[in-house]
Design goal:
The chain is an alpha+beta fold and 344 residues long. It has a single domain, classed as Sandwich (Jelly Rolls), CATH 2.60.120. The chain has 11 helices and 14 strands. The longest helix has 28 residues. The protein starts with 12 loop residues before the first helix and ends with a helix. The structure holds 2-oxoglutaric acid.
Amino acid sequence: MAFFQPLLNHESVQELAKQDNLTTVPHQYVQDHREPTFVPNDTSPLPSIPVIDMNDLIMEGSNMDLQLKHLHSLVNHGVDESLVDQMKNEVVRFFEAPIEEKLRYKLKGGEYEGYGQTILHAQGQKIDWADRFFMITNPIHRRKPNLLPDFPPSLRITLEKYMGEVQKLGMSLLGLIGRSLDIEKEEMMKIFEDGMQSVRMTYYPPCPQPDLVVGLTPHSDAAGITILLQLNNVQGLQVNKDGLWIPVTFLPHAFVVNVGDILQHRAVVNASKERLSLAMFFNPKLEADVGPSKSLLTKTGKLPLYKTLVMEQYLKQFFSRKLNGKTFLHKMKINNQDHASSSN
Ligand SMILES: O=C(O)CCC(=O)C(=O)O
């Protein structure tokens, strides 16, 4: 896969946005067709995402089916409040650090782990109005030790603690999702235990022309779940519902959880305020089969509606896709011809 690094005379969007005289956004960031944000009115109020209490989920399990399959706010999640606050502070301090410090973790050409701007796959591709730090955190042998930031010094330790706690939460959620869908526990464990996990910290600087850019290009996440934390009470996440871009409000002390490769989302930016977020992604093992649950197919005797791919292949195809507004899941659908040819 070819990667083209941005040809810019600055190292980060954060640095660009600091320029006193910046009144117009450089063309590399200007989106040609940014869809507008939904504006509520008396007849169409702002829809809100479901709020799920982790305690109810553990008690009631299967009654939560519907909400669990989509995006929701998770409250009473059990991750220690002071650890979450410490994590927030450390990430803020990381992005406040001088650019020279952050560039120690700089994304190298052809790689996708490290600190930098949007990774470009095509000439002329637009760049998101954000700087990011991304790395694979699990399985442990896939971690690049030089990438886990040790600046500020306590970031590394806090991130380890936070990842441990959020990992426990992620595995519980995956177990509950399996239970609510009647998938055998062993099957879920075989797919997700010691699976692919990664973390992304994002800094969205204020932007002089916020309506012309996006902070995060519309996409759906790869299979699994994403546990999202907004760090500084500045909203910007939006989800696509029936073609409308709906702003998502983060509740205090809640995570936003996104389940599966289903929901298109994007982040928009603000004229006066910076925004920061921290996402942890929980995906199947690279060698796991991703597709309709084998235990469910056996139990129900139904034909699969989607193809099965090994996770490594799934990810390769996911990241090289041209979806034209569709989720990758849509591309995994089996059509009647596939069934006919497999029965021949
Ligand atoms: O910044 C946000 O709220 C969204 C972040 C996100 O979805 C991602 O990093 O994939």
